[in-house]
């Protein structure tokens, strides 16, 4: 991937772009060995050294790591405090938060927004856009 990006130095230097490796990431101890224009998607519940944190652009996690969604009441109270703490920790590091495996409909979007999740994953872009525009 880096060799491909090296063919486009303007993209590597563009301050409006953030190149974030998510999913199949290297070990955090290797983050600083990547070129400076590369950032990483950290795991919300994982500890990181200050060096690794300096290369993390956002924190993500599987909502199921904290709780299961209840289709009648939303996120049960049993997982809510731990999730709030994790989000607050990320925000104290000035890092935005994204949760995956979260439900993808208006009631869930509202609850994620109330939790101050910064990015909402969706397969329903038009519906989410309409929901956000109606708020």
Q: Runs with pLDDT <50, length 5+? A: none
Structural domains: how many: 1
Amount of helix: 25-40%
Residue-averaged pLDDT, rounded?
92
Shape: globular
Number of strands: 5
CATH topology assignment:
Rossmann fold
Instruction: Give the N-terminus to C-terminus distance in angstroms.
Output: 39 Å
Number of helical elements? 6
Provide the CATH top-level class. Alpha Beta
Report on this structure.
- There is one protein chain.
- With 135 residues, the protein is of the alpha/beta class.
- The protein has a single domain (40-134), classed as Rossmann fold, CATH 3.40.50.
- It is built from six helices and five strands.
- It has helices spanning 2-6, 9-13, 50-53, 77-92, 106-114, 125-134; strands spanning 19-21, 38-43, 56-62, 97-100, 119-120.
- A five-stranded parallel sheet has the order 1-2-3-4-5.
- The radius of gyration is 17 Å and the shape is globular.
- The relative contact order is 0.11.
- The model has no long low-confidence stretch (mean pLDDT 92).
Q: Can you describe this structure in just a few lines?
A:
This protein has 135 residues and is of the alpha/beta class. The chain contains 6 helices and 5 strands. Helices cover 36% and strands 16% of the residues.
List the main descriptive attributes of the protein structure presented here.
16% strand; single chain; Rossmann fold; 5 strands; 6 helices; 5-stranded parallel sheet; alpha/beta; 135 residues
């Amino acid at each position: 991937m880096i060799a491909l990006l090296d063919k486009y130095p303007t993209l590597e230097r563009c301050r409006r772009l953030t190149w974030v490796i998510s999913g199949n990431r290297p070990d955090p101890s290797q983050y600083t060995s990547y070129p400076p224009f590369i950032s990483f998607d950290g795991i919300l519940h994982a500890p990181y050294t200050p060096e690794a944190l300096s290369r993390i652009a956002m924190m993500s996690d599987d909502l199921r790591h904290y709780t299961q969604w209840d289709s009648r009441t939303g996120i049960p109270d049993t997982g809510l405090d731990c999730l709030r703490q994790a989000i607050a920790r990320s925000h104290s590091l000035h890092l935005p938060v994204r949760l995956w495996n979260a439900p993808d409909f208006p009631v869930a979007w509202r609850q994620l927004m109330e939790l101050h999740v910064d990015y909402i994953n969706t397969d329903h872009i038009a519906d989410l856009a309409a929901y956000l525009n109606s708020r």
